[in-house]
Amino acid sequence: MQEREIITTNQFVWMLFILITSITSMQLPAMLIAQAGRDAWLSVLGGWLLDVLLAVIYAYMGLRFPGENFVQYSSTILGKRAGKLVGVLFPLFFLVVCTIIMRGFGQLIIDFFLPTAPLAAILLSSLFVAAYAARQGLEVIVRNSELLGPLYIFSILIVALLITPDVEVNLLKPQFDYGVRPFLTGAPFILTYFGICIMMSMFIPLCNRPENGFVAKFISVSLGAAFSIIMVVLAVAVFGYKQAENMYAPGLELSRMISIGRYLERVEIIWVMLVIGAGIIASACMLWAFSVGIAQLAGLRTYKPLVYPTALLAMMLGLTSFHSSMEQTRFAEYTYPVFAAFIEAGLEIFLFITALIFNKRGKSTLH
Predict the structure, then answer these.
(1) From CA 97, how far away is CA 293, in angstroms rounded?
(2) Which of 131, 124, 17, 6 minimizes the C-alpha distance to 67?
(3) Confidence (pTM)
(4) Which of 67, 137, 145, 349 lies at a C-alpha separation of 20 to 30 Å from 273?
């Protein structure tokens, strides 16, 4: 491929953070609370630790195979044919994640704000914007993440501050009321969503300092875990875990509660704008990663002709894969974690072990 983009470590961090928050700002907190109850925030810590350990492997592989992402070093490790069979699973994973993100926030807009709007119109308009950004290149996408990331952090801190008077700490107690099983099921569950940051493998070859891959992932997933813990703790402490687990978007419900006299109301509109922004940026990144991965496997000179067809495919999957929001939630809660765990952990650990056993390494390249 002719395109050779460069991103900074700072952009690396904010892009991964946006990927995490694009999921955690919607239905993930409720699904996690349904899995772990009052122990949901502890499960976030467990998922964070597991993801950091997994990041060590991705960062090591990025340095062991300089200038190559996992789509490329799959062929270096396994050979041309087997490597392509394994390597194509990573772009397909990005396509599935793009579909989940866009369907999720499209459903949120319909359920809460535009109940008569056709889902197809929402997906078409948002995916068109995401595809346009993806065609402009990764550098454009990550520059937008640098703007939106700090706004997200500021917004959750403001929500936490303004909602504090409604917090009931007793609703968070006791911990491990049902033993350690809820925690043990919740931690790997949220790991599969933090794990969309396997995107780091696509970023490391393009980073101006590839040796900072682990540091960037550690910072971003730590910020994302802190964001998730605040969301989960507030949802349980304000609504109780029984009510919170039945909400589609606890963050939106929390922001709806904020009202200071006649001067500060309807702040959920700001929250939704941030959710939409993060969803479009994350989807643009997924479209870019899918298109680049397929272009590399097919030996194309550029990925750009693939972007709009990929966006159309993602839209069709979003429209036809689920007949209702309940089906989409069930897929996200039960089917996706199994598929994601296989891709995020299973395949990469397999490649890691195979590379060690057969002493496979990439060729040193000038960045």
Answers:
(1) 15
(2) 6
(3) 0.93
(4) 137
Average pLDDT across the chain, whole number: 90
Q: 80-111, pLDDT tens digit by residue?
A: 999 999 999 999 999 999 999 988 888 888 87
Backbone φ/ψ region at 313: left (φ over 0), alpha (ψ -120 to 50), beta: alpha
pLDDT tens digit string along 144-188?
Answer: 999 989 988 888 888 888 888 888 999 988 888 888 999 999 999
Amino acid at 97: V
**CA 183 centroid distance within chain:** 21
**Phi and psi torsions of 263, nearest 5°:** -100, -25
In this prediction, residue 261 carries a pLDDT of: 63
Give the burial string for 246-276 (b: 16+ CB within 10 Å, else e): ebbbbbbbbbbbbeeeeeeeebbeebbebbb
The token pair at 284 is 């643009």
Alpha-carbon gap, residue 299 to 288, rounded angstroms: 16
Query: What does the pLDDT read at residue 27?
Result: 82
Nearest CA-CA partner of 37 in 227, 239, 200: 239
Domain boundaries, the chain: 9-354
* CATH, domain range 9-354: 1.20.1740.10
Is the pLDDT at 365 greater than 80? The verdict is no
Residue 90: which of 349, 337, 306, 343 has the closest Cα? Answer: 343
Q: Say how far apart CA 340 and CA 338 lie, in whole Å.
A: 5
